[in-house]
Write a structure and sequence with these properties.
The chain is of the alpha+beta class. The protein contains three helices and ten strands; from the N terminus they run E-E-H-E-E-H-E-E-E-E-H-E-E.
Length: about 130
């Protein structure tokens, strides 16, 4: 570990060391999520800025070894899933429109009771 000496004898971690640790932890978490998705039969697609890092059409799903290699090279890549066998409804919520209000106005809450849901970075939702 790299410490920066401080007055009074207390040392603090070097900011570069802190960033490296955070990046390592983020990568380990993303790799574990990606491998878990793959173990459950999902085809994982690593993405950066909403762009895939691999060609995924007409190819088998990434292996655990390929997932490890990609996230080692691109530790901040996000995870997308190829949607061949399931549907994703992306509901946006932003100034000028709230997609959740549109969903509620359908009057069929039962359509969404047994589905998986995640909150997106922008405050919307993805229903699977």
């Amino acid at each position: 570990m790299h410490y920066i000496p401080q007055k009074g004898g207390q040392n603090r971690l070097d900011p570069a060391e802190i960033k490296a640790r955070l990046d390592r932890n983020k990568m380990e978490n993303l790799v574990n999520y990606a491998k878990t998705y793959a173990a459950h039969g999902f085809s994982v697609i690593p993405i950066v800025n909403k762009r895939p890092l691999v060609k995924f059409a007409n190819r088998p799903a990434l292996t655990k070894e390929e997932i490890d290699a990609i996230w080692t090279k691109h530790p901040t890549a996000s995870i997308a899933l190829q949607t061949r066998e399931f549907l994703v409804i992306d509901v946006d919520r932003h100034e000028g429109g709230d997609g959740m209000e549109s969903i509620k106005s359908l009057g069929h809450n039962e359509w969404f009771k047994s589905t998986l849901c995640e909150k997106t970075h922008s405050g919307g939702f993805n229903f699977y």
